[in-house]
Design brief:
Layout lengths: L6 H7 L4 E6 L6 H8 L4 E5 L7 H11 L5 E5 L5 H9 L4 E4 L5 H10 L24 H11 L1 E6 L2 H5 L1 H5 L6 E5 H7 L9 H17 L2 E5 L4 H9 L2 E8 H17 L17
Parallel strand pairs: 1-2, 1-8, 2-3, 3-4, 4-5, 5-6, 6-7, 7-8
């Protein structure tokens, strides 16, 4: 069976924006279909803060493969074993949070790629080949080319080391975790603060220097999101199931509560003439 290609990686290679649908609460295989129906390119399965089991994570990944939406899993910091297991079971990309140095980034890139590019272990026939891959060497080379390796920069140290991180072969995206970055900078939640703007500039410069993609997470107001996209952020987490449901529900409830008041008494029927 033909390899399922990574549409998000191709969009990024073509200089386009790739939009991510965050999944925190949804558990059914309808999630990637909903992501596709709403124009998203990739699905952010949050294994760092969400309460997903391995089974739920992998079922979401496998379900996404036929939709054109790229299944990408965020694992906990340093959880290389969780990440490679997700890759063995349908994920086409991994997000590792709290990456502060080039050394950490190199370890991650090596773990997610088969030899000679890295040290990933062969886990048997993968779902991205419909469980019918070609010869192992051929399959490994092809899979290496499809995997997206995304590292999250969430501290002043990471921003300072952005060029070293971006220089690592096998790292594709430097994804700024803006919320945690503002907390570490002492300006929690201030997405438009000059320190944040400076961080995006520094990381963006590192990405352009080394041919990598700048990513943006945690910025959901339109003013600041537009600013950082204008600074060349192209791997974008647009929101998630929680915020989408809350926003949509708030709008509908406000609409119905804003309708004219319903009369408390029904009009009396006129008496019939005898």
């Amino acid at each position: 069976m033909a390899l399922v290609t990574n549409a998000t990686k191709r969009r990024l290679a073509d200089g386009k924006i790739a939009l991510g649908f965050g999944v925190h609460h949804l558990r059914t295989v309808a999630a990637p279909i909903l992501a596709a129906a709403t124009g998203h390119d990739w699905m952010f399965i949050d294994g760092e803060h969400g309460a997903f089991t391995v089974q739920e994570t992998t079922q979401l990944c496998i379900a996404a493969l036929s939709t054109g939406v790229t299944p990408i899993v965020r694992v906990c910091a340093g959880a290389i074993d969780e990440a490679t297991r997700a890759l063995d079971n349908g994920a086409l990309g991994i997000i590792i949070p709290h990456v502060d140095t080039g050394k950490e980034a190199r370890r991650i890139a090596e773990a997610f790629h088969y030899p000679p590019q890295g040290k990933r272990s062969w886990g048997g026939p993968p779902p991205i080949y419909g469980y019918r891959p070609p010869a192992t060497a051929e399959a490994q080379k092809a899979i290496n080319a499809e995997i997206l390796t995304i590292v999250m920069l969430e501290s002043p140290e990471a921003v300072e080391n952005a060029s070293d991180i971006a220089a690592v072969e096998g790292v594709d995206v430097l994804f700024i975790g803006t919320s945690d970055l503002t907390a570490e900078l002492g300006i929690s939640g201030q997405m438009g603060h000059q320190k944040v703007i400076d961080a995006y500039q520094a990381v963006g410069d590192a990405c352009r220097k080394h041919g990598k993609v700048l990513g943006m997470g945690g910025v959901y107001d339109e003013e600041n999101a537009a600013r950082y996209v204008g600074m060349d952020a192209r791997f974008i987490l647009t929101g998630g199931d929680h915020s989408y449901i809350m926003t949509g529900a708030d709008q509908r409830v406000s609409f119905f509560n804003g309708l004219p008041a319903i009369p408390t008494e029904l009009p009396k029927k006129p008496k019939r003439k005898k």
